[in-house]
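hey m, so remember when u said the tokens were messed up on ur end? i reran from scratch. heres the input so u can diff it against urs
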Amino acid sequence: MAMPSSGAISFSQLQTNFGGSNPISMSEYYGVASGVPGSGALSMDDFYGTANTVNWLVVAGGGSGGNRHGGGAGAGGYIAVSYDEGGDFSHSIVIGAGASGNADSGNKGSNTTARGLTAVGGGRGGVSTVTTPGNGGSGGGGTQEDTNGADPQQPSQSGDSGTFGFGNDGGSFSSSVNFAGIGGGGGGAGGDGGNATSTSCGDGGVGKQWLNGTYYAGGGAGGGRVSDTRGDGGLGGGGDTRTANTTGNGDGVANTGGGGGCGNDAPTRGGNGGSGVVIARYFGSPRASGGTISQSGGYTYHKFTSSGTFSL
């Protein structure tokens, strides 16, 4: 909760909002919020209206793409929200894995959880006439079995309802002279997957840019024939159309939640989904623990690429 905007402020209120040790030293509170001096004399008036605000990014693992002639995978669900934390807190972090590609349809990515929030794993990419694309944080791209692409699940999460959680539809399938056709791109946090054409695989949907300037949760590209124009993965770690059996080809980028790309005729599996990530950001110098800690632009960042605990 925020500090009072007028009147007397007690030391116990400082501890309740920003933590601290006993006996209290005012130097513990240098620069804990915007407008609070980072050195020199501190007055209680400096804390009027301040709060221990933490900005959260929570991204699930991306789905994996279909083997060939099918849809790109949907990106993991993306959550961006801010909370005024109390002075002492401890939050468990579980990072969702990206789904593994295989020789058939793709798989759904795993959920990421933090501070009671759940980012939903990205939807799978289907395979030509064999399987439908899957719903997920963002939906997988369309195949001949379901030409319209799959639906996003993230915006309908309980307590979320699309106000701070993002996911979009997979793009649509295109039939062609080849019985298998060409797949749509997987949905991204910032936009729907691209629709396929008679000669081009669908691009992955664009992700969303967070407060650190980086894009996350881009969708994977669809797949088709070797002669078709390959699709590009969505900005935010989405995998391109997988064109060869080489490491990383068509895979979503690790710790972005990007969806895997579908293969064309050449590969033996679809692209893997990128693993999820959690980042917590607050103003001032480091005062919490957990994750990989960095500082930039007056803020401290705690980045979790594996499960752990964020605490003060």
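this time it looks ok to me. Helices lie at 11-18. if urs says something different then somethings off w ur setup not the seq
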